[in-house]
């Protein structure tokens, strides 16, 4: 399993419903999940350059 870190960027919303239709997402990096726990996980980045770029405003998905 892996985790992909990304920055969501600008969001496009439907003006009538407010539903999010799309966003200008930018992938920052990918990491391999090594250990899963009930409330957290340990991951190793494929490229160590992303470590200094990540902060609490970025999002992540697992794949």
What's the structural blueprint in terms of helices and strands?
Blueprint: E1 2-7, E2 11-13, E3 20-23, E4 26-36, E5 41-45, E6 59-62
Antiparallel strand pairs: 1-4, 1-6, 2-3, 4-5
Mean pLDDT: 92
Tally of extended strands?
6
Uncertain ranges: none
Helix proportion of residues, in percent? under 10%
**Can you count the helices?**
0
> Largest sheet at a glance?
4 strands, antiparallel
User: How many domain regions?
Assistant: 1
Main β-sheet, spatial strand arrangement: 5-4-1-6
**Class based on secondary structure composition and strand pairing:** mainly beta
Strand content: over 45%
How far do the termini sit from each other? 6 Å
- The 3D shape can be described as elongated
Rg estimate, integer Å: 14 Å
> What are the secondary-structure elements, in order, as H or E?
EEEEEE
List its salient traits.
four-stranded antiparallel sheet, elongated, about 50% strand, two-stranded antiparallel ribbon, about 60 residues
Structure description:
- The chain is an all-beta fold and 63 residues long.
- It contains no helices and 6 strands.
- The strands form 2 sheets. The protein has a 4-stranded antiparallel β-sheet, with no helix packed on it. It has a two-stranded antiparallel ribbon with strand order 2-3.
- β2 and β3 form a beta hairpin.
- The model has no long low-confidence stretch (mean pLDDT 92).
């Amino acid at each position: 399993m892996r985790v992909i870190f990304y920055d969501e960027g600008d969001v496009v919303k439907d003006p009538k419903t407010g539903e999010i239709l799309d966003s200008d997402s930018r992938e920052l990096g990918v990491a391999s999940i090594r250990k899963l726990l009930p409330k957290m996980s340990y991951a190793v980045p494929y490229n160590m350059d992303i470590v200094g770029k990540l902060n609490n405003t970025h999002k992540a998905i697992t794949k």
